[in-house]
């Protein structure tokens, strides 16, 4: 069931940057993305790409939050192996948040690959969910965030600077 148009489920979790609640980001855009496992091949390409693109998200007053069901200890070890990450990785070790967002693979105990864009009022404006074996296109998430921030309808293939629809 889609969360688009609904209030994003609140959470309070431990992370690599201390305890974090979604409500800590009220008034900001949040890109909340779930990934299956630390140290996995696809995630090891994706997290560094989000990190590389972080300045672009910062320009749009958007916070990046990565989350999965691994422990904070695993996150910290993985971050060290990646050479650092400039945004928090949250631990949903008990799998409650992953369930609330509707993306838990129950038998494996891991998250589907998913991204949610949450607006400053705390509502989900965008979600994309797919199988864990395919990495996301971070440029597309950034493009959608830009489009949402125009407050207008945007045609297919729209990019920042293109005309919006009335």
From TrEMBL:
GO molecular-function terms, A-Z: thioredoxin peroxidase activity
EC number: 1.11.1.15
Cellular-component GO terms for this entry: cytosol
Top EC category: oxidoreductase
Domain Thioredoxin: 2-150
UniProt KW Acetylation keyword: no
Gene3D superfamilies: Glutaredoxin (3.40.30.10)
InterPro entries: AhpC/TSA, Peroxiredoxin, Peroxiredoxin_AhpC-typ, Peroxiredoxin_C, Thioredoxin-like_sf, Thioredoxin_domain
Listed name of the protein: Peroxiredoxin
Native source species: Thermoanaerobacterium xylanolyticum (strain ATCC 49914 / DSM 7097 / LX-11)
């Amino acid at each position: 069931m889609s969360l688009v148009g609904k209030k994003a489920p609140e959470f309070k979790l431990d992370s690599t940057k201390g305890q974090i609640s979604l409500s800590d980001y009220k008034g900001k855009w949040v890109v909340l993305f779930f990934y299956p496992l630390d140290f996995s091949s696809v995630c090891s390409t994706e997290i560094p790409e989000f990190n590389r693109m972080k300045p672009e998200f910062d320009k749009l007053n958007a916070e990046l939050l990565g989350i999965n069901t691994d422990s904070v200890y695993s996150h910290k070890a993985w971050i060290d192996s990646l050479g650092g990450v400039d945004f928090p990785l949250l631990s949903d070790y008990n799998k409650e948040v992953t369930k609330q967002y509707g993306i838990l693979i129950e038998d494996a105990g891991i998250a589907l690959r998913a991204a949610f864009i949450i607006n400053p009022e705390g509502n989900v404006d965008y979600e994309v969910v797919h199988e864990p074996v395919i990495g996301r296109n971070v440029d597309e998430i950034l493009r959608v965030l830009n489009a949402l921030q125009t407050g207008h309808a945007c045609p297919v293939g729209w990019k920042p600077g293109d005309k919006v629809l009335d």
